[in-house]
Amino acid sequence: MRFNLTLPSAIILAALSLFCSAQTKDMSNDTGKVATKSAWLTLTAEQKNQVMQFAEPYKDYMRHAKSAALSAAELIRLGHAAGFVDFSTPSQVKPGARLILNNRGRAVLFAVIGSNPIETGSRMVAAHQDSPHINLKARPVVNAPGSIALLKTIPYGGIKRYQWANLPMALVGRIDTVDGRPIDVNIGFAPGDPVFVIADAAPHSDRLLRTRTYTEVFSGEEMNPVVGSIPGADSSVADQVMATLRQRFNIRDEDLVAAELELVPATQPADVGIDGGLVGSWGQDDKLSAYSATRSLFDLKGTPRETALAYIVNFEEVGSPNDTGAGSEFLDSAFTALIDAQAKPATALALRNAMARAEVLSADTNDGVNPIFPQNSENSNSAVVGYGVAIKRYGAGFDPNSEFTARVLHILDANHIAWQTQTPKVDVGGGGTIGGFLSMRNMEVLDVGIPLLSMHSTYEMSSKVDLWCYYRFMLAFYSTE
């Protein structure tokens, strides 16, 4: 079908073209962002100081949050310091109450009870606190050629396995014994601690390996770090390692079957760049969102009209299964408990009404335009580090209705918060969040994030100004009536 342009129509289209051209910022890597500029350029001197200072407690949280369980423990500690109390009885649920609903120490719901019943509506920011790492197998210690003992492992989440070779790693987690003793394990972060390293092949002797492809430098069964090298007079290196573990932790060999142990990079957060504008750390996907969601809730003043919630879950990197993942019914039980405390009895219809009237930000970091590989991104809809909050648009039924998206954009604009859009390049990129598990409960859900460099690597980078914008966005979302 052909359309003939009238003169007014042509003038309008020409004006729109000029407007879009004026709003596009060219950068050295030939990418641009429509209707945005670096958030750093919008800051006053005082605001820039606030940005730099805000990153310091975030880095401190990251020093503690070396697993989902350690993250949950640190967030609960911070919640208690902010006046939140553990939920134990329905009488606690009253306007202004600041409550913690703990799910097995691996997932947690923080709530500030609003003046209106939760059945009439709520505001929730949901994020996950697990990050790609390496798990230990149930019987992990084995002998290997060269008089070395290795740890047998299972990679967790989407990682490039070669990045984990030659990397100092720490062992964190817990062992639960048959006689009922929980034992915390944290080896590799304290001064003088040993670390664990996957040994790569030397260039002098790796000819047989050189035909391996980019993603197959290491197979899953080769991701085995060194755990020991000293044999006993009448025992192997593996036997000596197990003897050391038995003595250090007072365990039996079989207790490792009931252990949750994981290997993570033995590095700590640091500023990246001479200007200190970036934070570098393993695990920012998605501990960054977990921290922002809870920190903004902790800083919420007074009693909101609608109950404000931060829902922090586990296992997102492997599809959100298990009883502490977003696919569990813990959130339904928590909503039911809060509804029941406000207006007994909590009926199935009341729960469905509460879910349907909940507005949710599914917060998860996303891939940023890479300065070395900009061709991996599409230049008009890819998020740029330092350009603020990313509103994710996926298409194919994953986006919320337009009226909810518009309400969120209004919050950003009304509070002068820098934002941009994020859509992966078609047939090149992708990813998932916990948003689908929440929208299936009939909640209104919009996916948001901020961009990272080196996402899913052993040392991710985020912009401090994006972190600050993200926090302010969530605080405004909780507060806006």
Q: Which class do the helix and strand fractions yield? A: alpha/beta
Shape: globular
Q: What's the total helix number?
A: 10
Low-confidence segments, given as residue ranges, are 1-35
Task: Write down the domain tally.
Answer: 2
CATH topology of the largest domain: Aminopeptidase
How many β-strand stretches?
20
Our Rg estimate from Cα atoms comes to 25 Å
Give the ordered list of helices and strands: HHHEEEEEEEEEHEEEHEHHEEEHEHEEEH
CATH architecture grouping of the largest domain: 3-Layer(aba) Sandwich
Describe the structure.
By secondary structure, this protein is of the alpha/beta class. It folds into two domains: 39-131 and 282-479, Aminopeptidase (3-Layer(aba) Sandwich), CATH 3.40.630; 133-265, Roll (Aminopeptidase i, Domain 2). The chain is 28% helix and 23% strand. The strands form three sheets. Strands 1-2-3-13-4-14-18-16-17 form a nine-stranded mixed sheet, sandwiched between helices. The chain has a six-stranded antiparallel sheet with strand order 8-7-10-5-6-9. Helix 3 (68-81) runs parallel beside helix 5 (284-298).
